[in-house]
Amino acid sequence: MNILVINCGSSSLKYQLIDMKTEEALATGLVERIGIEGSILTQKANGEKYIVEEAMKDHQDAIKLVLAALVDKDHGVIKSMDEIEAVGHRVVHGGEKYAASVVIDEDVMKQLEECAKLAPLHNPPNIIGINACKALMPNTPMVGVFDTAFHQTMPEKAYLYALPYELYKDHHIRKYGFHGTSHKYVSMKAAEAMGKDIKELKIVNCHLGNGASVSAVKNGESVDTSMGFTPLQGLVMGTRTGDMDPAVVTYLIKELGYSASEVDDILNKKSGVLGVSGVSSDFRDVEDAAWNKKEHRSNIALDMFVYRVKQYIGSYAAIMGGVDAIVFTAGVGENSVEMRESILEGFDFLGVDFDKDKNKVRGKFAEITKEGSKVKAFVIPTNEELMIAKDTLALV
């Protein structure tokens, strides 16, 4: 069975066409800088790389290019969309209704629309991806795999907010957590690398990209994570504020005259490293401005990002009573040598014996601590697509 996995992020789209008999990808692809100047699709298949540089104003444009690339007569891997027997979609927010993956029908689509207000940067492109595939492959089953599912093991003390309890009971206002598929995958891989049972380990995962989160995984279960009711909480991100005093919202509305929708737009789309640097939401652009052009605001934006990640690693080590491994994954986590070094600097008190030479890797698995380090640190490329494909296969 061939399963197409669509993984739409806030400004990127990853996809894989996977032969589930072998669990090998027939084609893998990445669409970057959606809605940003310099949009590009890169597909790898049959040992060759196929690149399409074309403006993509939104995720619908990106999906069209993905499907065209898969059936391209010179660079594609299938002759028609009929060779795709199911499509698995990463869906960011399932609310409390979905704690596991589900076959997508009209009722599910309505629920996803309802949840869009909780993940305004992600559920809309997820929905676009589903609708684009349904339009081109109306008879192909679709499965939604939710980022929130892995974090359903969090205890009440971690997922409840100190608001009137009725707001949780009546309106389901609580921490949900995201990037769950990624956090689950890299936790399992870290345990494999250490040759230990995941149920015996305390792991802090750092999923760092345009969207970013840290998760505390104890004995194989998520016990806390940095994202909350929506993907806005937690780390400084590409365009999102992360943690801040919530009174800023009321101040912007009452004192500066912003509407609620304008504030929502600022917090989700105009803040983060983009808002602080004034350069871009793409960390590579900000790193270039900070390190090569010596722009102060870009330096501050990166410093804030590193500072927040360090805060979460330290706090999660505390709540778990220690840490056995720290994992870096996703775009920044897998590829930025400098950011990983900055984040781990000063963690020798935890037992991290960092190795600068081992850290000089991009986009591939590596242990980046010295032999004998009490706490291991790893770079582990995430593979949310394979996890999504497995859930899709099980359901269809």
- CATH level-two architecture of the largest domain: 2-Layer Sandwich
Distance N terminus to C terminus?
10 Å
Would you report the number of β strands? Answer: 14
Strand order of the largest sheet: 5-4-3-2-1-6-8-7
User: How confident is the prediction overall: mean pLDDT?
Assistant: 95
Radius of gyration: 21 Å
Order of helices and strands: EEEEEHEEHHEHHHEEEHHHHHEHHEEH
Helix run count: 14
Q: Provide the CATH top-level class of the largest domain.
A: Alpha Beta
Within CATH, the superfamily of the largest domain carries the name ATPase, nucleotide binding domain
CATH topology of the largest domain: Nucleotidyltransferase, domain 5
Largest sheet: 8 strands, mixed
Helix/strand structural class:
alpha/beta
Could you describe the 3D structure shown?
The protein has 396 residues and is α/β, with parallel strands linked by helices. The protein has 2 domains: 2-146, ATPase, nucleotide binding domain (Nucleotidyltransferase, domain 5, 2-Layer Sandwich), CATH 3.30.420; 196-379, Nucleotidyltransferase, domain 5 (2-Layer Sandwich), CATH 3.30.420. It is 37% helix and 19% strand. The protein has helices spanning 59-71, 106-115, 123-136, 156-159, 165-171, 180-194, 247-254, 260-269, 272-277, 283-292, 296-320, 330-335, 337-344, 384-395, and strands spanning 2-8, 13-19, 24-32, 40-45, 48-53, 86-91, 102-103, 142-146, 202-207, 213-218, 221-225, 325-329, 366-367, 376-379. The strands form 2 sheets. The chain has an 8-stranded mixed sheet, sandwiched between helices. It has a 6-stranded mixed sheet with strand order 11-10-9-12-14-13, sandwiched between helices. Strand 3 and strand 4 (40-45) form a beta hairpin. The chain is globular. The termini are close together.
